[in-house]
Amino acid sequence: MLDNEECIHGRRRSVDVGGLALALENQGLGHGWGGWEEDEQGETRYAELLSDMYNHTQTTVNHHVNDLSPIMIPAPTRARLITSLDSWHFEPHNLPEDEVLFCTLILFESLFRIEHMHEDIGVSLDDISVFLKHLRLLYCRHNSYHNFQHALDVLQAAQTFLCAAGVVPPVSILLESNDRTWRSDKSGKESRLAFDLNNTCLFALFIAAIGHDVGHPGLTNMFMKNAKAPLSTMYDDKSALERMHYALLVQAMRHHCLGKLLDRPDSGQRFRKVLAGIVLATDMCIHYDFMRDFGSLVAGREYSLPQRQLLLCQAIIKCADISNPSRPPSVSQYWASALMVEWTSQASLEKHWHVPSSVTPSDCPITHVRGQIFFISKFAKPLMDLVAQAVPEMECFAHHCTENLAMWEARQENMTSPSAGQFPSSRVVVPSPRPPEDYLTSFPLTLPPFVLTPDEPHASDEWHSRYPHSDSSSSSDVSSDIHVEHPAILQSTSPPASPVPSVGSCYSLAPRSSSSSLASNANDAAQTMRAAYSASVRKKKSFYHRRSWNATASSGSSPIISTYPPLLATIPKAALLVAETTASDGTTITSVTAMVASPAGENGRGRKVP
């Protein structure tokens, strides 16, 4: 039975990790997913990771539920943004953070002008509005590329592609009568692949576009693999980030009445499969697999309707996710610079934590240009050209991509010509890398297990943050010192940090100001674990429970530390019951009760160890 609190919330508040391990015993479960050996230790470790993933996902999403009121857009602002969203020269990084959020809602409003969309989906725009406010807080503001502006950029690109194909209306439909609905004109084009998409597919694609990078730590899958991050281990080094994005996205949906789409008896499983398939398609490691499958579709191979729908949705989000090379040159160059900044920070972090190098950013202009030529010629252009064969209206975007490739090639030729001898000594000036402590606010399972142990390397003097926690209303005001000195490389301003409140701005860690405090926490944790051992706790140290995201005050205010004691270093948070009280002096007092696995014969219930 559930206790009173569990009954009120309708779900369990804790997970018995030992019970998960027992449930997996001799069942042959989990081995393909986590890659565990068939022994008790492997199954226990897998169960612990499952518990961690479930628990951190719940905690991450739950702690960001603050303002539940719908988004209100001022009329003059609304009209201006509608016009800008219909332009391929759209630049979300130059918008104030509130207007970035407004744009996401406006795009969903235009989608809901499609005939029968509201009836087919069964959720209101108010529900979507609150969901979008919540989702924005789950994106990391420290990231120069994988932030909420990028999510909007991908959503707007997807909407533009679909509008060109005649599948969704232009955003400008919102300037017309509020009661006007829209229906696609299929005259003479009934056999077009784009018209295989129904309203549910379109909605799933919009949700995936805005949530496809939620919780992104600013690190790559290869970094997590090399660092042996628990998230990568749990997913057997396969699309670990993308699976995390999907988990967070689904949990956020369930908070705001969008969960009904996931659980409908007749279509919920299909919706989840489509949503997951779209998000996972953004992993570039499976790019060539997609190109093979979509190429066979274009070549005439027979696929079922659900397969065609999923392949097309994947094609649209892949084109949108790497649409920067098809944007106008100034926009394309901005995003290229933004990604370089993020990779530079990762490279410095790899050096700092002694993790094998997985990215090689360079401040050499010619290297940067060659990198753009390689990416466009090997990935972006072939993708755009292939999708344009299935969706002819996307040919213009493939043409833009070809033009940008020619621009980069001409730039390379100019830089390597005898008359350009000064270029090799020029350098692209990028901001100093993010300090390691910025990454400590990332989703916990994305970080190496050693990060919060006494073995963590000391911060080096090379780390100087250029990502201030600014309350500025515009991206361009956040970090004006980020620029590119050489006009021959980038004429546009290099990317500042995202001004959107991040998981980092809403979560903080318990004392981490020095190595001595980390060591003290670890010693306290060891003592706690020994005490738990004497109370008959299962004698298997948790694989990764060294830290968690902790709620603080809303963005812009002084953080109120609400942190679990060092017990978290060894006991799964899923097995903790946490109670907080406030003393008369305002101090927050946290009490923790550990729920530990019972020895056999105690009815399978956990025992409490205070």
From TrEMBL:
Keywords attached to this entry: Hydrolase, Metal-binding
Stretches assigned to the PDEase domain: 64-415
Record region (Disordered): 459-480
Biased composition (Low complexity): 470-479
InterPro entries per the UniProt record, alphabetical: HD/PDEase_dom, PDEase_catalytic_dom, PDEase_catalytic_dom_sf, PDEase_CS
GO molecular function, one term: 3',5'-cyclic-nucleotide phosphodiesterase activity
Family matches, as SUPFAM superfamilies: HD-domain/PDEase-like
PROSITE patterns according to UniProt: PDEASE_I_1, PDEASE_I_2
Single biological process term from Gene Ontology: signal transduction
Known cofactor(s): a divalent metal cation
Pfam families: PDEase_I
CDD domains membership: HDc (cd00077)
Cofactor: record remark: Binds 2 divalent metal cations per subunit. Site 1 may preferentially bind zinc ions, while site 2 has a preference for magnesium and/or manganese ions.
Biased composition (Basic and acidic residues): 459-469
EC number, UniProt record: 3.1.4.-
Domain of life: Eukaryota
Family membership noted in the UniProt record: Belongs to the cyclic nucleotide phosphodiesterase family.
PANTHER family per record: CYCLIC NUCLEOTIDE PHOSPHODIESTERASE (PTHR11347)
Protein name: Phosphodiesterase
Natural source organism: Rhizopogon vinicolor AM-OR11-026
Organism phylogeny: Eukaryota, Fungi, Dikarya, Basidiomycota, Agaricomycotina
